[in-house]
Known about the structure:
alpha+beta, BirA Bifunctional Protein, domain 2, 7-stranded mixed β-sheet, binds phenylalanine
Amino acid sequence: MSDDLQALRAETAELLAAAADLRAWDAVRVATLGRSGRLTGLLKGLGAVPAEQRKERGAALNRLKGELEAAIEARRLALEEAALDARLAAERLDVTLPPRPAAPAGEGGIHPISRTFEELVALFGAQGFSVAEGPDIESDWLNFSALNIPDHHPARQDHDTFYLPAGPDGRRPVLRTHTSPVQARTMLSQEPPIRVIVPGRTWRADHDATHSPMFHQVEGLVIDRHIHLGHLKGCLIDFLRAFFGIADLPVRFRASYFPFTEPSMEVDIGWNRKTGALGAGGDWLEILGSGMVHPKVLANCGLDPREWQGFAFGMGIERITMLKHGMPDLRPFYESDLRWLRHWASDPLSPPSLAEGV
Length: 358
Ligand code: PHE
């Protein structure tokens, strides 16, 4: 290779090494390979080379051209990589760092209903439950018939149902009166074993200090082989003691009736009627409904009752929230009164944790 070509190669290598960013790199590229670049100039000058040297000179120039193109491209890749590394370092975000306290203090809290949702998910999650959901507007088959509440059954009246206009099948959809239709939805859509809770909105035409036309329930459903009443009792006793944070909270199971469970049990917890304090206070307070899933309900939902058994429960979220915090009235839950919300809201940056007690 002649001296001028070697010089061009060496100088270009130096210039490339000195190019610290893509702009400087592009200047080197243009000065070498561009229309009036050094190498382009040498190629253009080939015609003036004496004929006997032209072939050799031409081959050398072509080789050099290949080398320079490769060197320039390699430098571009190195610079781009360095730029990306610098950007990754500059924009680094450690999502495991603890959050900064919210400012100004007290703005943006979690509503007590949402907080209870979170606590239910944490507590039942620790018992292996996952969360299932269903729509607010249900067919009367899912809200009632699948759950062994036939047409004209008095329970349909007890529920103070909101009916919607009839659909093409002539049947009127309802605003679900309980979360129990999601029991049926879950059994129809999932293979057992099943272990779900269903927190959600429910509707009944009822309105006073302890009833709202829209309220919330949480349903629980467990389906497996060999499930018995002992499982139901253990599950609910553990939950109630953890939720209310009272290790020796008395819990009583009292025979009752629901069309969709057999046997059915209402569950009471101990309290003191005079002071309102929960715990061993000599009185009993009804808190939720439960029972072993009725064989007819299993069959309605496509499960063989000889193979599968289970238990279910349902409770009012407002009710357990009011009891836990000593709230006297249900209505403020929905009134968006900022003073009430500020008083009862919980810190969005400390979600419920089992380790700290919910
Ligand atoms: N769905 C019942 C209610 O709304 C509660 C319940 C659920 C009872 C599951 C037993 C089993 O009152």
